[in-house]
Design a protein that fits this description.
Blueprint (H helix, E strand, L loop, with lengths): L9 H10 L16 H15 L20 H11 L3 E9 L2 E12 L5 E4 L4 E6 L2 H7 L4 H8 L4 E13 L22 E16 L1 H5 L14 E17 L12 E4 L4 E4 L9 E4 L3 E4 L9 E4 L3 E4 L9 E4 L3 E4 L27 E4 L2 E5 L15 E5 L2 E4 L5 H9 L10 E2 L6 E2 L20 H10 L7 H9 L55 E7 L4 H4 L14 E4 L16 E4 L8 E2 L3 E3 L2
Parallel strand pairs: 22-25
Antiparallel strand pairs: 1-2, 1-6, 3-5, 4-5, 5-6, 6-7, 8-9, 10-11, 12-13, 14-15, 16-19, 17-18, 19-26, 20-21, 22-23, 23-24
Length: about 600
C-alpha cells in the first residue's frame, strides 16, 4: 500500500502501515523498555483522565508556555498578529487545556509593538504522562504521541523578544471583528514571547539528570525532534470584557448550541436572557416584569395568578387591574401548540441514525500512539444515517449487475501499472457473499454509494458514528481490542481465518449507535481528501475535508493488523484514490434531513 503518489517509497509505506510505526519509534533505542503490564496500566490511566477523573481543574494560567503547541496554531498566531490583536478560546475541558486561535476573529483596538526581553531561560521536563498534563497543558496530546512509550521528554526555551500590546488596553466583546468567527472568544493575546526552543526525548534517567536540549550533542543520547530559533514560546492572555454574542440579521438570533444564526422563531432565550433583533439572546441586566407578572427564579416572568381585583376592575396580563369599561371579551382559546418538527425520514434498510450535535474529534489524551490525528477539536454535525455494516460482496454485485458499478480489477491489489493477483480479494470467492467487498479503489466505492442513493461518509461523520460523544477509545469502549470485539490479528490473521469475516459477526464491538465493524475487518474509504494541517483549520460545523489533494482518508483498520493503537476510533490513514488492497472496503451514509 502507498501513502504517497511517489512509487519510490513503497517500502517505507509498507513498514509504516503494517508494523504500526509511530513517530516516537525513531527514539526507541533511547527509551526504557515497558512490560505489557506497564503498557496496560498506562492505558487505564489515560482512560481515567479522558473521563475527567484524577486531574486538577482550573489549571489555567494567564501566562501559558506554548513550546508544545502545534505548528499550525503558532503560524496562525504570528500571521494574525500582523493585522491586530489575536483573539483565542482558552478554557479547561476535563483534563485538557484548550488554546485555540480564532482565525476569523480579530481586535483592531491596538497593535503589537516589538520589545526586547531579558533572555531568560526555562526548562520543562516530563518523566511520564502525569508530568505531561501538569507541565505541558497546551499541546499535551501532540507531545504525548511524540514522547512514545518508556521515554521522558524535556523542553527548553530562551526568550529573545516580545510583541506587546499597549499597557492598560482593555478589549471588550462588542469591539471584536469577525461576527460568527468570534463565537466562543474568551481572551486576547496581550504579549507574544518568541525565542529559541528545543524539545527532545530520551531515557527517564537522562531526563531526570537534568540534561538540556538546546545545543545538545548526540553523545548525550537525546533525540531532539523539534526546535526553532524564532518561534512563539510563551503568551500572556487577558480576559475579554463581556461575552461575545454574534450580531445576526433582522429576525435572526444566535443559537449557542448550534453556533449559528437561526430564525428568531426557532430560538427561545433561557431565563435571564431576552431576544434583541440583530443580537439574539442577550443578558437581562435588570430583569423586570410587567404588571400582572412576577419574576420566578429559573422561569422568568410568570403571571400573578393570585392577584385579585376589586369590584368594577378586572386583571389584564401586562397591565394589572383595569376598569370594567365594557363587557369583558370572551376568553380567547390559547394558541395551538407549535407542532413538533417532523421526524427524519426512515433510513434505508439496515442503516443507523447518528443524531445531530457536537462531539470531540481527533486524538484524545487516552488515545496513545497518535500521529496526524492528534489535533483534538470540537465538531458539530447535522443528523445523518450510516450503514450498519460494511458493504458486502452480494450488495456490490447487485450494483455491477445493474451496470452502476464496475468489476474491474476486483481480484487484484496494488496500484495501476503494478497490480498483482490478490488471493484474499473476496470478489467471486465461494462463500464470501456476506463478507465485505474489498480490493476496491475510491472511485468504485463512491460509485456504489451513488448507485444506492447515498454517498461516502465524511471523515467526521465516520468518527462520530464510531465513537459517539463520550470520547471513548474504541467503538465498544475502553477494553483492549480482541477477537471478541473486532476481526483482527490475534496471532492469526482475521482471528485465525486468514481472511475477512462476514459483516456484523462481532456484535460486541458495536458503536454507541449500533454500527458494526467500525474497527477491524476492512479499512473504509471516506469522502475526504487528506490534509495534514486540516484539523487545525477545520470548520466547527459539518467539515468535509480539504477542497482537493492527492490522498483520500480511510478509517477503521483491518483484519491483518494487531496492535491496539490501530483500532482507536480516532485513528486515520490515507492512500492514493487508485490504490486497492485486501484490507480496503467501505460503507455509505446519507443525510437524515
Amino acid at each position: 500500500m502507498l501513502r504517497t503518489s511517489s512509487l519510490g517509497i513503497v517500502a517505507v509505506a509498507l513498514l509504516s502501515t503494517f508494523a504500526g510505526c509511530t513517530p516516537a519509534k525513531v527514539a526507541q533505542g533511547l527509551c526504557d523498555a515497558m512490560s505489557e503490564e506497564a503498557i496496560a496500566e498506562q492505558e487505564q490511566w489515560r482512560a481515567k483522565f479522558a473521563s475527567g477523573q484524577g486531574c486538577r481543574e482550573n489549571r489555567l494560567t494567564e501566562e501559558p508556555d506554548v513550546v508544545g503547541w502545534d505548528q499550525v496554531s503558532k503560524q496562525n498566531l504570528l500571521t494574525l498578529a500582523q493585522e491586530g490583536l489575536v483573539v483565542v478560546r482558552y478554557q479547561q475541558k476535563r483534563c485538557l487545556t484548550e488554546l485555540r486561535v480564532l482565525t476569523n476573529c480579530i481586535s483592531r483596538k491596538a497593535s503589537y509593538k516589538e520589545t526586547p526581553t531579558s533572555g531568560s531561560r526555562k526548562r520543562i521536563a516530563a518523566l511520564n504522562d502525569h508530568d505531561l498534563y501538569a507541565n505541558f497543558p497546551v499541546g499535551v496530546g501532540d507531545l504525548q504521541a511524540k514522547m512514545g512509550l518508556g521515554c521522558g521528554l524535556v523542553a527548553e526555551f530562551e526568550l529573545k523578544h516580545a510583541r506587546m500590546m499597549p499597557i492598560g488596553t482593555v478589549v471588550k466583546a462588542e469591539e471584536l471583528e469577525g461576527n460568527e468567527g468570534c463565537a466562543g472568544a474568551t481572551h486576547v493575546v496581550s504579549t507574544i514571547y518568541s525565542g529559541s526552543f528545543a524539545i527532545g526525548r530520551g531515557s527517564r534517567s537522562v531526563i531526570g539528570a537534568g540534561v538540556g536540549v538546546l545545543g545538545v550533542s548526540s553523545s548525550q543520547k537525546m533525540d531532539v525532534f523539534e526546535s526553532s530559533t524564532d518561534a512563539p514560546v510563551r503568551l500572556t492572555l487577558l480576559p475579554i470584557k463581556g461575552e461575545f454574542v454574534p450580531a445576526c440579521g433582522k429576525g435572526l438570533g444566535w443559537d449557542e448550541a448550534r453556533r449559528a444564526c437561526v430564525a428568531a422563531e426557532d430560538t427561545s432565550c433561557r431565563p435571564g436572557l431576552h431576544f434583541e433583533p440583530g443580537q439574539g439572546c442577550v443578558p437581562d441586566e435588570h430583569p423586570r416584569c410587567d404588571r400582572g407578572f412576577h419574576l420566578e427564579p429559573g422561569q422568568g416572568c410568570v403571571p400573578d395568578v393570585s392577584e385579585k381585583c376589586s369590584a368594577g376592575f378586572h386583571l389584564v396580563a401586562g397591565q394589572g387591574c383595569v376598569p370594567d369599561m365594557a363587557p369583558r371579551p370572551a376568553a380567547v382559546a390559547p394558541a395551538a401548540p407549535r407542532p413538533e418538527p417532523p421526524a427524519p425520514p426512515p433510513p434505508a434498510e439496515d442503516m443507523v441514525l447518528v443524531p445531530a450535535g457536537d462531539f470531540w474529534m481527533g486524538c484524545a489524551p487516552q488515545d496513545w500512539g497518535c500521529g496526524d490525528d492528534n489535533m483534538r477539536h470540537q465538531v458539530y454535525l447535522d443528523a445523518f444515517y450510516i450503514d450498519r455494516t460494511e458493504v458486502t460482496v452480494a450488495q456490490y454485485r447487485s450494483c455491477v449487475n445493474a451496470r452502476g458499478c464496475t468489476a474491474d480489477h476486483l481480484t487484484e491489489w496494488g496500484l495501476p501499472g503494478s497490480l498483482k493477483p490478490g488471493e484474499e480479494c473476496n470478489w467471486n470467492k465461494s462463500g464470501r457473499d456476506s463478507h465485505p467487498i474489498n480490493c476496491v479503489d475510491w472511485s468504485q466505492a463512491e460509485a456504489y454509494c451513488r448507485f444506492a442513493g447515498k454517498r461516502l461518509p465524511t471523515e467526521a461523520e465516520w468518527e462520530k458514528a464510531a465513537r459517539g460523544t463520550d470520547g471513548r477509545i474504541y467503538p465498544w469502549g475502553s477494553a483492549a481490542p480482541s477477537c471478541h470485539y473486532a476481526v483482527m490479528d490475534d496471532g492469526g490473521h482475521g482471528c485465525g481465518r486468514d481472511s475477512t469475516s462476514p459483516v456484523g459477526s462481532k456484535p460486541a464491538g458495536a458503536s454507541p449507535y449500533g454500527a458494526l465493524d467500525m474497527a477491524g475487518n476492512v479499512w473504509e474509504w471516506t469522502a475526504d481528501w487528506y490534509g495534514k494541517a486540516y484539523y487545525a483549520a477545520s470548520p466547527e460545523r459539518n467539515p468535509t475535508g480539504p477542497s482537493g489533494g492527492s490522498l483520500r482518508v480511510l478509517r477503521g483498520r483491518s483484519w491483518d493488523l494487531h496492535h491496539a493503537m490501530n483500532f482507536r476510533a480516532s485513528k486515520r490513514d490515507w492512500f492514493v484514490p487508485e490504490d486497492r488492497s485486501r484490507a480496503q472496503g467501505f460503507r455509505c451514509a446519507r443525510p437524515a434531513g
